[in-house]
Records
---
Amino acid sequence: MKISKLKLNPTNPRIIKDDKFKKLVQSLKDFPEMMEKRPIVCVTDVDGKMFPIGGNMRLKALRELGMKEIPDEWVVLADDWTEEQRKEFTIKDNVGFGEWNWDDLQENWDSEQLVSWGLDIPGWEEEEEKENKDLSESIEVGYKIEIDCLSENVQEKLYNEFIERGLQCRLLTL
């Protein structure tokens, strides 16, 4: 199918920003086979051209890649749907009903790959730092904590972390 038979949806309610768009373009460049399993859902407009009600951003990315033709199976028509069904699909196709299991992702997936695939990962390190900061703020002056370290490197690392959190501490060598 000639890509010129397709046009962007003139009333698409979604946008894609520069960085995300670059990731989508790269994603389709690296893994075009995914279009076979997740085709663009289109309807035919009065001018005879088809426009996406699902996959508008992918169409934009395919154009960015300079594609002039795409396999027919990358496009599915929904001309038999009512206007109400088309609108409903446009929204439901883009709504993320589920949530990510961040613990599972952190444990079993490569974070760099996830980011390159377009997943926005909340700062796992930032969350850990916040928890540690909250803990340090809850410790009142006057409390004493003793930590036995088996190596000088570990002791120095802990000392520096405590200082960075604004805790008063001192090193004692046994």
---
Amino acid sequence: MGGASHAHNRIVSNLVFELRRALGDGRCYPLSSDMRVRVAESRYVYPDVVVVCGEAELEDGDTLLNPTLVIEVLSESTEAYDRGAKFAHYRGLATLREYVLVSQHERRIEQYVREADGPWRLSEFLAGRLELPSLGAGVAIDAVYLGTRLG
């Protein structure tokens, strides 16, 4: 998102850093908001953070086709889209296992995990640790909000 707030940018950079640290040199790795993702034929989005596991499948060398996890940091101008139409597009991706929404206005993280039989399970985190089952890793909520007024 162009012109994002300081808190938005700080949360995104914290997430990328913490995910990279948690994932080490394994087969999964995070990418930031410049990574374009195709969610439907001729429809593309730029998630705040995306994690790929295994080899990246790319269209034209610069568009990711196989995200495992997507994180969006909510802002007033994008929250309805992130929760509604954008999440609907993401749910159509067979490789996507988790969708995470991070508030920048309160300490609250919502996690949607795709169950084995297809439905999405919602969990909410206010403190402690966000476990990411698709990655076999997690991040501390304090680390996500480090350097913000919520930290």
